[in-house]
Amino acid sequence: MSVDGHLEALRREGRIVIVGASLAGLRAAETLRAEGFTGTLTLVGDEPHEPYDRPPLSKQVLLGKVPADHTRLPRRRPIDAQWRLGSAATGLDLAARRVRLADGDTLDYDRLLIATGVRARPWPHELEAELDGVFVLRTQDDAARLHHRLAAGPRRVLVIGAGFTGSEIASACREREVPVTVAERAAAPLVGALGGVVGEVAAELQRAHGVDLRCGVLVTGLEGDSAGRVRKAHFSDGSAVEADIVVVALGATRNTEWLADSGLGAGPRGIACDAGCRAFDVRGIVTDDVFVAGDVARSPHPLFGYQFLSLEHWGNAVAQAEVAAHNMVSASAERRPHLWMPSFWSAQFGVNIKSVGVPPMADQILVSQGSLAEHRFTAAYGYQGRVIAAVTFDQAKWLDFYERQIEQAAPFPPEFTTVDRRPEGHQPVSAGFPDPSQPTHGPTVTLSGYSPTDRRVSFTPRRA
Amino acid sequence: MTSVALLGQILDYANRPDPYPLYAELRRTPVVRDESGPYLVSTYWEIKGLLHDPRVSSDARNLTPDAAAAVGHEQDPDLPPSFLLLDPPEHDRLRRLAMRPFGPPHTPRRVFEMHGELAGIVSGLIDGLRGRDTVDLVDDVSYPFPVTVICRILGVPREDESHFHEWADTIAAGLDPIGTAEERAAMAQAVRQARADLARYLAELIEERRRAPRDDMLSAMATEHGPDGQLSPVEMITTSVLLLIAGHETTVNLITNGMLTLLRNPDVLKRLRGEPGLVVPLVEELLRFEPPVQMLPQRTTLADIDIAGTVIPQGAPLFLMVASGNRDPQRFTDPDRFVPDRPDNEHLGFGHGLHSCFGAPLARLEAQLALTELVRRLDAPQLVEDPPPYRQNAVLRGPRHLPLTIGGVRD
Description:
The complex is a heterodimer of chains A (464) and B (411). Chain A is of the alpha/beta class.
């Protein structure tokens, strides 16, 4: 009774603080109200803006189709929250249940949700990073500045890093008919996320659209002119390129520094949490009042060997926020696990790319439908004899089927034929992911972790 | 192996007005072999799964010879199949080429920009009802409206309608998987003849448009070149036959079923009159509740498919009973009730996946405009008989006539 009474009081008049006012934070706030939470709700955000949508920033905004400040997220319901925008959280006292803000204020909570996400990894050389014309792209302000400079008609743009963000920026440049060079350390674009076989297709796409794509090179330095504007970049192969805009697209860093010394299990790979979104402390003990959601979270997934997955996916942020919010105000028996099927999309060079599952976990790939040469295909990814992921280029309508295959741990290579199977679709080949022990900048998925004992799903591949 | 004998009853004309109790019985076994041969799939999730399953083919050449004979899918020796009955990659290429002059990404505003023109056609037809106290909704509005529209879009002269009306009806009737071997043979022969006649008619028209292009789809198909090249002359014919038939035989039922449903639910009709914006979700509910295409009888399997406790063997005929899936209580709460603003209404009325309805945006707009205007302008409409007389066709199901009495026509 007393436990029920406690929960009832929490739902009625508790204090919930959400740190992070982007997609996950907003959706969690809305879910809390939808679940009947009537207490005090505070949203803390380091940016001054109300929650906005990020996928358009590297696409429609750079093309000038949508102004950067017109990307505000639609609201599902009123949330009656106290907003603390433009004031980053700087510390957490787990024992006192208190968050410290940059402006010196403190916020007491009964339940805390951490959804601080990630930020763009800056150019490592600070003086070079400060040159005029050197950009990253993560926030609305970044997008507004970059769009402004693209609209002014630069002579050449250099994009450093051919992950999804870098490739989408290069695509927008080409659509604007701006000359663009892309420098990528790996052998092809998108290799970290999709592997070498599909990466080759991405490379062909870029070159076919007039991108000066340089793979297997590092940018060793950026050079400015006397006025402090970027002018030139030097590459590890001894070559150089003149560019008046340089976009650094080297992936993201998780916003967890403010939790250092808090005792929470937070670090560069994110904040570890259980399937119910409860954060672990550094001792490996799960907390009961601190929850995590979105890009900054790292949680175990039974379909993928109970690895702790950290997903920078739009859909994951929404789904995890909803589960976290529900669990924050529910009794333990009513809590739900976050067992979202990883999926994401990208639009670049006129192609719609979609993915389900966890491609980087795969060792093999089979083009089960369509053809790589036509840039229109469905590729199934296999790991230890079962289907673990699928990627489509302009064939998204088939993904539902492959999602079921992943959920059912269907055997790989597939034992059946399909419509549009080509000769190349008869033998699996190596998926071509870079050695994970090498540093790599662009994976959208990070894998690590162990197997807990509480198994909710067991898979039995038909072939060992 | 368990089998049922329900398909015969569903196809029986006596059950045309209300096949839904038969579908309910069918759903007791989600995937089952009918004694007449085909595998019937009647539940929502199974149908949706198979519509997205790359092991399912729309190409009758993948049926086993026995199965092809049993369901009467014989190849037309004169004319190859349209993209409706093809698999990727041919299907994808043909559909992309057909979509170029019709919709996104190449012509994104085509349907949107027809709004005013379509509204004008509907009001003209309703104006024609002035001074009458009985009307046949089918002959007076729901048939002429979409036919006029598809003729304009394609560039087929409306005055030739009397020629191709009968061909179109015959070809549509050929979709029905009907009775005895003799009947099927006779039907196949009639369909082949109608297709040949319609093809000849369209071939001449396409040639005319190629020489003197206008602003219509036949001209675009005959003259434009895109990244996929161009349709071959035969592909132009099969594609335009498909679009003409589809534009002819389906939306008429959507509009007629809509008016029938509204007259059976006077409270909803009244609500729509005061709240025209309701028509958007209402048409979606109509597509769920009384879908113009009741089943998709032309699929087969490229491999054995293990689904819902049944293995559908490779090459078997597969009928996806979408009208039944739309009433599946596992998916829709209170499925036999017409709820005009039903939330979460992802119905199967336009199919799903690769072959999802090509003309859906146009059909939606036509039904929305027609129903809003009919409800706004017809005074005191009443059904003369319920149920009305139905067309023979069980796949493209709808009333042949919908006689109404009206008190007058408003401005």
